[in-house]
Design brief:
Elements: E1 2-3, H1 10-21, H2 24-36, H3 43-68, H4 72-79, H5 84-117, H6 124-132, H7 146-165, H8 167-194, H9 199-207, H10 217-230, H11 237-242, H12 251-284, H13 288-291, H14 295-309, H15 314-347, H16 352-366, H17 375-405, H18 409-419, H19 426-453, H20 461-482, E2 502-503
Antiparallel strand pairs: 1-2
Helix pairs in contact: 1-8, 1-12, 1-15, 2-10, 2-12, 2-14, 3-4, 3-10, 3-12, 3-18, 3-19, 4-5, 5-7, 5-15, 5-16, 5-17, 5-20, 7-8, 7-15, 7-16, 8-12, 8-15, 9-12, 10-19, 12-14, 14-15, 15-16, 17-19, 17-20
Length: 504
């Protein structure tokens, strides 16, 4: 049995929290988002979003987990019984994300090996889609892509082993290795990228401010969206992790450190990526605008092209880049999987190892769908809908439930202030009670308007219905279904102050 307060050190908790935030998306999503939304001018709404939504939400989730001492479903259920389903909804979202996240890490493992000998050749786009993925049509599963199975099995073995060992000896120790190593690797990548010919042009394209963009509401929505998704808010991660903190922990300070550390890494990623893009543009005689790409295409098509153009140590540079993707991905996957391992263990009174085997094993089996020849299309559709209409909507429900229905912000503020050097004031309640709900609501309406105007990526409407809408809405229904079963031994009752609550 493991005690609820399990982080060995504050550093261990912070590294784990940063590991959940610094994921694959930080490396390829932020640079493209910033560039497309005003370049250097984007940093103004980005910083505003961090201070008015990102950090306030982190503080709220840290405080909920720390005060109510449980996984997201248990903590929210202890706050008010009817809120348990929101926690399970978030857990279901985390489960869905873990099923395809593992496959992207498996790709990165293979590409780290390909980088050493340039196995992707000169046409990296064709290599990815045809030679590597053997892509089919949207909605067509095709055969199993056998080359992905071994690295996918390795990803799950590492993840489930770390989780099975426990919090202090598993998750904390893993992140003490992964996160410092990731930062060192990426610093090497950035330094090398900055020494390449054309790097200055890339950085100029990245930082050149378009001040006219500041007046575009879409830019502000993009800034809030970037902050919201990059900090792993409403994934049930931060509530779960903070529940393992000792009784006397500086909640507010921890949230500020996590938020600014995550943003610093995103900025570092932007510098490295655009310095490399500037080099590629010069080598191919193109403008930087012509070589910019976002999402998976940036990592698995554009960066291999950049590596091909490098004069010396190109294979080593490529290996470092994809190794950093692997480390970033593993740290996030471990955090994501912990949410449903903790929830299932508490709800069904299971041991940690049993919960890891059941929850992680089921996720690993479902992940095989994304390792098929049609896996990329399934991954793309599920990722788009679960983020746009799962994470964002669950976050909106969470903050409205806490701020408007339970009216718990003052109580949470008092709890955090009793423990923290940085005291919360009315600004915190205004941010969570008004700014964040309004922005999230507007963002969801904007996403829905675009969705109704045209099919996402031109995919067939039937495909989007089953692997988009059904998945996103299904997570909500799973959350409600999980509340039907009662907690064992009156688990929703708050433990006494003198007790250290144990989890199975």
């Amino acid at each position: 049995m493991e005690k609820r307060s399990q982080w060995g050190t504050r550093v261990g908790f912070l590294l784990a929290a940063m590991g959940s935030a610094i994921g694959l998306g930080n490396i390829w999503r932020f640079p493209a988002t910033a560039y497309e939304n005003g370049g250097g001018a984007f940093f103004l709404p980005y910083l505003f979003a961090l201070l008015t939504a990102g950090i306030p939400l982190l503080i709220m989730e840290y405080t909920i987990g720390h005060k109510y001492r449980g996984s997201a479903p248990k903590s929210l259920g202890r706050m008010r019984k009817g809120f348990e389903w929101i926690g399970w909804w978030q857990v279901a979202i985390a489960f869905i994300i873990s099923t395809y996240y593992a496959v992207i890490i498996a790709w990165a493992i293979l590409y780290a090996g390909y980088a050493l000998n340039g196995a992707w050749g000169s046409d990296t786009g064709t290599f990815l889609m045809e030679d590597f993925l053997n892509i089919t049509e949207p909605g067509v599963v095709g055969g199993m892509n056998m080359k992905i199975l071994i690295p996918l099995a390795i990803v799950w073995m590492i993840t489930l082993t770390v989780l099975g060992i426990g919090i202090k000896k598993g998750i904390e120790l893993a992140n003490k290795i992964f996160i410092p190593t990731l930062v060192v690797l990426f610093l090497i990548i950035v330094v090398r990228a900055l020494t390449l010919e054309g790097a200055v042009d890339g950085l100029q394209a990245f930082f050149q401010p378009d001040w006219n963009a500041i007046g575009d509401p879409g830019v502000w929505v993009a800034a809030y969206g970037q902050i919201f998704f990059s900090l792993s808010i409403a994934f049930a991660i931060m509530i779960t992790y903070s529940s393992y903190l000792p009784k006397k922990s500086d909640i507010t300070n921890n949230a500020f450190i996590t938020g600014f550390a995550n943003s610093s890494f995103e900025l570092l990623a932007g510098i490295g990526v655009f310095a490399a893009l500037g080099f590629m543009a010069m080598q191919t005689g193109q403008d930087v605008t012509e070589v910019v790409a976002g999402g998976i295409g940036l990592a698995f098509v554009v960066f291999p092209q950049i590596i091909n153009e490098m004069p010396v140590l190109s294979g080593f540079f490529g290996f470092l880049f994809f190794a950093s993707l692997v480390l970033a991905g593993l740290s996030s996957l471990i955090s994501i999987t912990e949410t449903y391992v903790a929830g299932v263990a508490e709800k069904f009174n299971l041991s940690r190892v049993t919960a890891v085997v059941i929850g992680g094993g089921l996720s690993a089996i479902i992940s095989l769908l994304y390792a098929t020849n049609g896996g990329l299309f399934f991954l793309d559709a599920v990722d788009h809908f679960i983020n746009s209409y799962g994470v964002a909507l669950a976050g909106l429900f969470e903050v409205v439930a806490v701020a408007w229905f339970a009216k718990e912000l003052k109580n949470l503020q008092a709890h955090a202030n009793n423990l923290s050097d940085i005291r919360l004031g009315i600004w915190w309640r205004i941010c969570l009670g008004w700014i964040t709900p309004v922005v999230l609501g507007f963002m969801l309406l904007q996403n829905l308007r675009v969705e109704l105007m045209e099919n996402y990526e031109g995919y067939p409407i039937e495909f989007l219905f089953y692997f988009g809408w059904v998945v996103a809405i299904g997570a909500m229904f799973v959350g409600a279904l999980m509340t039907v079963r009662k907690w064992p031994n009156n688990e929703l009752a708050m433990p006494k102050e003198s007790e250290e609550k144990e989890v199975g």
